[in-house]
Request: fold
Amino acid sequence: MQDDDQKTVKLDETDLAILEHVERDSDINLEELSDTLDLSKSAIHYRLKKLKDSGVITSTSADVDPLALGLNLLIITEISVVHESGYAEDIGEALSDIDGVCQVFYTMGDTDFIVHSRVQNRSQMNDLIDNIVGIDGVNETSSTFVMREIKTGDRTVANMSKQMRNIALEDD
Reply:
C-alpha cells in the first residue's frame, strides 16, 4: 500500500499548468505545449523530467473507456474485516489482486475498505463478490451498484480548487 507520509514536492504555477495539460492529454507534443504555455520545448522537457523524477508524474498512459470494453457494471463494495496485526496490508493486497478490482481504499470509520470494481455481467459480479468474501479476515461486505456515472476520471489538477492550488504552491 501507499505511504501516506510522502513529502510534498515544491511546485510553481508553470508546473501546475504543465500537469493540467498532461493530465488532460498525456500524448500532447512538446511543441504544442510550448506554444500553449509560452515556454521553450527544452524548458517543458526539463520540467516534465523533474516532475517524473520527483514522483509527481507516476506514469504516462492512455485513458481507456471501460464501457467500450463492455465493463458496464461498476460496483462499490464496503468491507469490514477482523482487526489483527498487519490486516490492512494483507487484506488490501488480497483485494487488489482480484480480477475486476480497479481501486482499493483503506478507510477509517464504520468500513475498513472501499473497493471499486468493474465487470461485464452478473456472473463476473458474483465471482468478484465470492472472491472478496473468500479472503481470510473479511467479515462483512455491502455492495452498491452504480446506475449512472456522473463524474469519473483522474483529473487531479483540473479538480483542484484555488485554495488547493495555493496550498500545493506554498513553500515549506
Observations:
- DSSP finds six helices and four strands in the chain.
